[in-house]
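Narrative summary of target 7.
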Amino acid sequence: MFKGLVVILALGSFFRWDLTEDKRYSLNDASKELVASLDAPAEVTIYLDGSLNAGFKRLKRATEELVEELDVYGNIHWQYGDGKDLEQWGLAPTIVHERAKDGRTAQTAVWPYAKVQYKERSAIVTLLRSTRGQSGEENLNQSIENLEYAFAEAIHSLKQTEPQRIAFLEGHNELPEEAVYDISRSLSRYFQVDRGVLGNDPAILDPYKVVIIADPQQPFSEKDKYILDQYIQHGGRILWCLNGVRLSKDALSKEGFTPVLPLDLNISDMLFRYGVRVNPSLLQDVQCLPVPVNVSADPQQPNYQPMPWYYAPLLLTSQLSPISRNVGQVSCTFASHVDAVGGEDGITKEVLLATSTASKMTATPAEVDLGDLNPDPATFRYSYIPVAVRLEGVFPSVFAHRLPPEGIENIPQTTANALPAKQIIIASGSVIRNEWQNGEPLPVGYDRYSQMQFGNRDFLTNAVLYLADDEGLINLRQKEIALRLVNTERAYKHKPVIQTVSIGAPIILLALTGCSVFALRKRRYTRPLV
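Modeled conformation, tokenized:
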């Protein structure tokens, strides 16, 4: 009777036990709640199929397991599809080059995508992530780590009946629309992207989940500061892309040098009150972009050679934050450094971007001279200088115990307790800027000379998604799966021994177990003749 009761209870209950060290088969609570809230089936079509190598088979198997795990907590149906159906989405296959043992090279086209269909809407999930400088195994492992977030983000966006709104601020000579075209297009997948000036009404920013301030060049008025401060007090989220210095790129290109002066935007007191300071300094880094320089003495026969442009550092991304985890280097020019100020203010501060271990800080006023391309390496003595930080918490008001500035309409009622808010401060306006070539916008973070793509778009997209995130989905990017690679050279060298042990050991163990069981049964049930 007791056994029957246990069976009945087991049939009526449900549990899963993940015994892996890195919990690779466990879903985050945010993912479980998300799929459980679906009021209609979600159809998932996986296009990663066909003739795949071992690495892509592992990615395919991980995708299947994730979708099946999501189906346990929600209503998910999945199937395989033909990758050619993705051509209408403008997606192309990934060409995988492999070299066989006989030296021949084979090319295979794979479609590392999945489509999620929910009601009348659909979204494409990119299964494969590629970070510059990482090996194929590392990229595949990072792709597996990112699977849960990628599917959760797609399902979350499909659930939104009305897209959330974000805004690029204007009125202070910020970057024009064409200069932020690429990141605006990337963010339009998740949000309705608007642009505009602040005006006189503090409630003008209330409909917007995130406000982006992209490289302003003119000072903020007290009225504008008041509107932004009230937005923060009511739980607003702001992405600041600010320059700490002012210089003339036209003078630099024409005359070969330009003075560098501090850029006063009249917001230093505001940021200081929030717990951060953008310093009027200029950073140089040994880890930087190249620039073509004419090294020929004959002006009739120019000879352009790549030279390091120390004022264009390649910033390192923090692997401790879900915003910057598994994101490649971020490119920028003429960056400044950020200091965290304050102490016991209850505001969480986290560095997202920093320089390398060989950096230099130059105080302003100063001068940038194209003729000085070989500085003393001994002067690059600083390491990991912060360039971008994340702030989260309840921020004190800059206008506490002060009258609202003149011209403000519909003055809001003073609140005793501010709401938790989020901010990200990047001490470089070039991080968000894209260039144009032949009438077409280039991806943000793309360097035309080296023809390399850096992680600016991924970093900025993650930053805005973090700022707009209320469910904690961005934390899914912190999932970490240990990469345990096989030493192929050693495995090939000891191949006969490994094969013998792998095949022979289980057979011997099975035989010993069978003999032991037979001996025990014989000893127990054999009775001596009387």
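The longest helix spans residues 495-525.
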